[in-house]
Amino acid sequence: MALPAWLQPRYRKSTYLFIYYLIQFCGHSWIFTNMTVRFFSFGEDSMVDTFYAIGLVMRLCQSISLLELLHICLGIEPNHLLPRFLQLTERIIILFVVITSQEEVQEKYVVCVLFIFWNLLDMVRYTYSMLSVIGISYAVLTWLSQTLWMPIYPLCVLAEAFAIYQSLPYFESFGTYSTKLPFDLSIYFPYVLKIYLMMLFIGMYYTYSHLYSERRDVLRVCPMKKKKM
Question: Which contiguous run of DSSP H or E holds residue 178?
Fold first, then answer.
């Protein structure tokens, strides 16, 4: 008895990726819709408790996104490992280390702004990737997925840097993650964050350069495909 097409070995990868992208798209769409509805219902007051309202789903989506590193290593996704690793670690560090560990930071407006930027990028990216897996391509969506990040990604990094800056007084006051080591050594976590703050902008330059090069290649190939059709 023949297996359904989507269960055949050559389609399993596409089926898995489609389901993965669909789950991520639904998660980020729910977050963005929830934030939009809350803002129009409660105004600026909704920005203060953004993390309490959608923080759990955001952490779930970002945790699942770590699978993308495995996808690249296994050859399931044709992306480059280092740029994706830098993008994911930025979010994991900011979300889990900086924001989740400090309740005072969770109430800052920058958290709401950061979540808006992240979700705008991810909704477009996962929509484009999901449709590409099943062979559907729209010129407008391709252009948007390859262009939207150009203004928003640097704004994301600035918002991440500002979140770190606002968190420093709380890490200094509460001593979170700071620890003493043997031989009179110690780790003062605010210093670690300040070093990471500098690395954040170096990583942004590398990632931006890679994404720009990728955009140029994709948009160069896209018109060729249209002509063949």
Answer: none
Is 68 among the catalytic positions? no
Catalytic residue among 68, 77, 90, 160: 160
Residue among 11, 107, 109, 153 flagged as catalytic: 153
**DSSP classification of residue 229:** -
Element (H, E) at 181: strand 179-181
Query: pLDDT averaged over consecutive 10-residue blocks of the chain (229 residues)?
Result: 54 89 96 92 86 94 95 89 93 95 92 95 95 90 94 95 95 87 79 93 94 90 50
Digit-coded pLDDT (tens) for 27-45: 999 999 999 999 888 888 8
- Express each pLDDT in 62-99 by its tens digit: 999 999 999 999 988 888 899 999 999 999 999 999 99
Tokens of 171: 């890490």
Please state, in angstroms and rounded to a whole number, the distance separating the CA atoms of residues 219 and 156. Answer: 24
CA 15 – CA 1 distance, rounded (Å): 20
The Cα 124–Cα 21 span in angstroms is 11
Strand 185-187 vs strand 179-181: parallel, antiparallel, or unpaired?
antiparallel
E strand or H helix at 187, and its extent? Answer: strand 185-187
Q: Is the dihedral of CA 16, 25, 229, 80 positive or negative?
A: negative
Tell me whether residue 160 is one of the annotated catalytic residues: yes
